[in-house]
Amino acid sequence: MEQNASETNSIRVGDLDFPPRKVWMKTYGCQMNYHDSERMLSHLEKLNFTATDDQGEADLVLFNTCAIRDLANQKFYSHLGETKPLIQKKDVIVAAAGCIAQTEGKDLIKKYKQLNFAFGTDVIDNIGEMVYRAYAGDKPFSVTTWDRSENYSIETKITHGSPQAFVNIIKGCDKFCSYCIVPFTRGREKSRRLDEVVKDVKRLVEFSGIQEVTLLGQNVNSYGKDNGESLAQLLGELDKIEGLELVRYTTSHPYDVSDELVAAHGTLKKLANHLHLPVQSGSNTVLQRMLREYSVEHYLGLIEKMRQANPQMVITSDIIAGFPNETEEEHQATLELLKKAKFDFVYAYAYSARKGTKAARGEDVLTDDIRGRRLREVMDVQEDVQAEVRKGMEGKTYRMLVVEKGSFKGETKWTGRTSCNRLVHFTPSDETDYLWHWVDVEVLTTTAFSCQGKLVADFGKNNGRA
Ligand code: 5AD
Ligand code: SF4
What we know:
This protein is of the alpha/beta class. The protein folds into 3 domains: 3-143, 3-Layer(aba) Sandwich (Rossmann fold), CATH 3.40.50; 164-390, tm_1862 like domain (pyruvate-formate lyase- activating enzyme); 397-458, CATH 2.40.50. 32% of the residues lie in helices and 24% in strands. It has 13 helices and 22 strands. The chain has helices spanning 31-45, 70-81, 84-89, 98-111, 127-135, 182-186, 194-208, 231-238, 259-267, 284-289, 296-309, 328-341, 368-391; strands at 3-5, 11-13, 16-18, 21-27, 49-51, 60-65, 93-97, 117-119, 141-143, 164-168, 170-171, 190-191, 212-216, 246-250, 274-276, 314-321, 345-350, 397-408, 411-418, 423-426, 438-446, 451-458. β1 (3-5) and β2 form a beta hairpin. α9 runs parallel beside α11. The two termini are 41 Å apart. Bound molecules: 5'-deoxyadenosine and iron/sulfur cluster. Iron/sulfur cluster binds at residues 173, 175-177, 180, 182-183, 218-219, 253. Iron/sulfur cluster (SF4) binds next to α6.
């Protein structure tokens, strides 16, 4: 698309003028979706859009949807319904992106008259053309095609001013866990080349002041398989980048945790002391029905190896409570696993049947009540484990990046995120603006859900580098 700035602050693109406009975006779901939203915003900025938090002043209303559980779906449908009065008042373009749009795009357009277009997860880089079509007066349309090119090649786009960036390194998922919709909404696995990622991160560090990166993928530790490369290799290369302080990655599958990856956690200086490794269930029979391809014993062995390689290692996980036909005994096995694994945090969900997945096809004897009770039991057991794990932090000192200023009972509190992914709060003794400073904090008190510390050292914005 050709672009020329005109005197009216409008941008001329093809046959249309794009005056300054506002986009209101609502993102549901995982970090991948949030990162996609940021990418879409960066494309929209080229069409003269700026973001707004006020839906009332929006010219473009964009939903980036999530299909992982029914709750996320319901939220989107109800928010979409609420846009009706808005479009009656003024000329607004409404669009839906993301995982629901990928599988339901055509139906959404038919059913919701306020929608101008819907598009899937593999065409977000074409959002400019789609917005253009909408302003050119095209009838409502949907685009849910897959990118068929051999390579997954992109450049990370950031629109924020923070020193943290997400970097997509692999898209899609080939695992087809029996409960999961992701392989249908995100397509097959495709990795970026290692050289490209390293160049991308170097550029972010050098030109955008990025100091912390989180490598993203639905199945991030499957990275590179298609190209004879690996996540451990990539982490080794990123470790050498001067100016980069911390590297995280998420989300991993236990099946793809290699010995090299375990070793990397013991040797690499910049790799975070944290691994999010969803276990889903503590019962081998449930894991088999989930098609997870590992046993509880294998999983526990893996996290033991990680902790041996790096004694600072903190492990978090995901649990699905009430998988179809889960017996009481199988559920109890999950509670036992939580006590053994000593996770630092667990995202626990009640199983939610997703149309098209294997698990949703058969019969299921469990009721919502049973699922709800099991979910509560998982959370209760984990809360006790977590309180104990967090107690172990007391008296220890952690390096962290300050990410937020808040207030608690009228007192200023700064919050930072440690390498092991814990949030620690501290009360300042002076007026310094600590945002994006690297600091050391000593943890004084903890509960299952919060850690309070005191500032021990302040290294400033670049961790002491000029
Ligand atoms: N029901 C409940 N939880 C699910 N997850 C994925 N699919 C479902 C489902 N159908 C959970 C898994 C996964 C996390 C991102 O969402 O725990 O790790
Ligand atoms: Fe879903 Fe399993 Fe793929 Fe994770 S690994 S995205 S749970 S299919």
